[in-house]
Amino acid sequence: MTQWSGYLGLILQGALVTIELTLMGSVLALIMAFLAGMGRVSRFFILRAIATAYIEFFRGTSIFVQLFWAYFVLPFAGLSLTPLQAGVLALGLNVGAYAAEVVRGAILSVGREQYEACTALNLGRWQGMRHVILPQALLVMLPTFGNNAIELLKATSVVSLISLADLTFQAQVVRSQTGSTLMPFASVLVIYFALALIISWGVRTLERRMARGLDGVRV
Amino acid sequence: MPAPIIKVDAISKSFGAFKVLDGLSMQVMPGEKLALIGPSGSGKTTILRILMTLERIDGGHIQVDGEQLYHMERNGQLLPADERHLARMRQKIGMVFQLFNLFPHKCVMDNVTLAPMLTKGVARAAAEKRAMELLDMVGLADKAKAMPAQLSGGQKQRVAIARALALSPKIMLFDEVTSALDPELVEEVLNVMRKLAAETDMTMLLVTHEMGFAHDFADRVLFFDRGRIVEEGKPDEIFRHPKQERTQSFLKKIIAAGHRV
Question: What angle do CA B32, B35, B40 make, to 5 degrees?
């Protein structure tokens, strides 16, 4: 029994790496999503072009390949990353490309009358975006952002391929050391599921909090 | 005789193949209250939206408060206005919309203070003090902390009026501001406008289907049809003794639809 708890400890260590990757990857994805999503609706052609190229490239190529590039190819260009850095970079850029389209869609979903009110009140483009459009668009983005974050969580398992000791990697270690397949894979399944539940719950809470007052009910 | 505050000169504007404004010219004197009436699609809302720079013109010139709206004078030449010129010109003009267009994520107070703080650098305390005066003027001082969704249509529209006034424009544009309201809420908005007309010397242009209100409120009434001003004059002349056949038939239809003149 003590032996099992030791192996469980290994798996929990892996879980910490997975959580770390998910958090840091999400932050990068969020930054990229807003940069590229707002670039897509920019009035400057060059910004639109850069944003579109980024989104199409990272949605159109496999995250495995992106990770291998970040870890194995970038060193040839003089940029050596630790497995964690490479993982965060690949995950953030990949999921950020999907989320950028969410940002763009949400910005476009805010009614034309809100933009017109901004003009009538003489707000600059950025002022209107920052204070009027984005706060309303954010509420539209949130549910899909929750999806993206869960996708990112599950995609973190690819880093086991560059020998980063995440949840999936540790499960395989335990399996090869104990010969037991059910225990490590069952616990990994439960942990991924629990982490996804936490993300869902967090996003829903945030959504409720942000929608407060919009429907006329003061909570 | 003072110079006109708005001078519209041979404006044309099309939406695709549809010519909304067809060589429209008009002048508005400072402090004048103008009612723009006419059938829908006649261009009366479009001219308001053009003055607020929400639509661009295809041809012609507009002068507001002595300056070109869509053109800049540089070394004696007229160039198309850039965003900075437009932003400076917009300071002179405020607009209230048919559907209020309040910011739903901000409370009443923040709706009113946002633009003065961002565009004029007014400190929060000063902006809130001014906002309270304006909310008091429109009878909503007790709703400062309410969210727009908690208000009735009439209350929303009064907040929208206060919000536009907070930037102290010289000219106020009212685009069918009571059309979306339940009948029993119309009067509270009209009362605010009457008060505004009585207490300030602001120039006011309103597009309206409230003929009774237009009659009492306006110094001058313009009847629009097919992108042109067909007839204009004092309210009594237009409403009691319209000369043009098109004005007569429009008013007849409006009265038949149950509107009071």
Answer: 150
